Automatic annotation (TrEMBL):
GO molecular function terms listed in the Swiss-Prot or TrEMBL record: 1-deoxy-D-xylulose-5-phosphate reductoisomerase activity; isomerase activity; manganese ion binding; NADPH binding
Function summary: Catalyzes the NADPH-dependent rearrangement and reduction of 1-deoxy-D-xylulose-5-phosphate (DXP) to 2-C-methyl-D-erythritol 4-phosphate (MEP).
Name this polypeptide is given: 1-deoxy-D-xylulose 5-phosphate reductoisomerase
Residues covered by the DXP reductoisomerase C-terminal domain: 255-372
Annotated NCBIfam families: Dxr, PRK12464.1
Lineage, highest ranks first: Bacteria, Pseudomonadati, Thermomicrobiota, Thermomicrobia, Sphaerobacterales
Gene coding for it: dxr
Family per similarity comment: Belongs to the DXR family.
Binding site for 1-deoxy-D-xylulose 5-phosphate: 118, 144-145, 170, 193, 206, 211-212, 215
Organism: Sphaerobacter thermophilus (strain ATCC 49802 / DSM 20745 / KCCM 41009 / NCIMB 13125 / S 6022)
Keyword RNA-binding in annotation: no
Domain 1-deoxy-D-xylulose 5-phosphate reductoisomerase C-terminal: 139-223
Enzyme class: oxidoreductase
Residues holding Mn(2+): 143, 145, 215
Amino acid sequence: MRQRLAILGSTGSIGRQTLGVVDHLPDRFEVVALAAGHNAELLQEQVDRYRPRLVSVADGCDPRTIQAPEVLSGAEGLEAVATMPEADIVVVATSGHSAIRPTLEAIRRGKTIALANKEAIVCAGEILVGEARRRGVEIRPVDSEHSAVWQCLSVRHQESEVDRVTLTASGGPFRDTPAAELATVTVEQAMAHPTWRMGSKVTVDSATLMNKGLEVIEAHWLFDLPYERIDTVIHPQSIVHALVSFADGSVVAHLAVPDMRLPIQYALTYPERPPAPHLRLDIAALGRLEFSPPDPERFPALELARAAGEAGSTYPTVLSSADEVAVAAFIAGRLGFTGIVDVVRAVLDRHQPAPGPLTLEAIAEADAWARREAETLIAATAR
């Protein structure tokens, strides 16, 4: 039987590449539901091609512009797609915090989760992973580094035998730039990622290494590891995506060309590995593979994110929300590049988490507060 997919964020980069995997393996998958933002034209093309039974559009997009059996909108529509009874796998390919509740509801209904959304695990990992464990639901990582860790851990082992996990980072466009020169870098320079082609927010986060800091928090929840056993290294070639070190001193690494279709396909077809049309890795042609520790002076976002993760509660939410506002301000020309981390640090310093256990309501309140606080700081900086 074909696996039935519901895709949140179908018109984004990960969503489009997920549908590319479906095109490559049409006998294995059926698309039963799609949720997208405001790109109605592309969404209609997807509806015409894949014939989903349920479609959802973002608030502000007229559902009547989409011709499909059932069209919903907003948070209600996103949750309906995530919980569609016919869906076997829910691909969470949206960005931002709006995916948290739909992901939780999909878990509660026993759906397998193919997760590409960082914010869901960064902000609500305690809730989502805890619920998934209680219900025996798989959360399959789509992010290339976490997929690599997942695959390395597939080597037969006992939990006590895993010593540590190492995530790799390309270092972005500024891996060799002196820290003193970073204050004057332009948006164009920050967007010139040497390896990956991504959206503007993720590309800027990769330039500051905030992206890698968020991935450390994700790894903590996805693989149940303490932060002191999660390392990061700069690896400019982006060929080794992660390494797992075992207690006996051996290290298992995952190598692949930087192509997101590979981790997407693995998340959808696990535990099988059907042939893929992607580029094959030519080991002989690689030449040298380089690794070095990240420079904390050049990349302060990395330790800032780690500290927020260790603090727990709603600190990761504040980190993520303040960073989103600060990155948007940098792209708009309202904030300097190094000001991104300065704003995020200042907002974290002012945060007072609500007492008690972590809840979706506390996350939402911290999110809104952090955005307001970050905007206030950015406005003050501009004066």
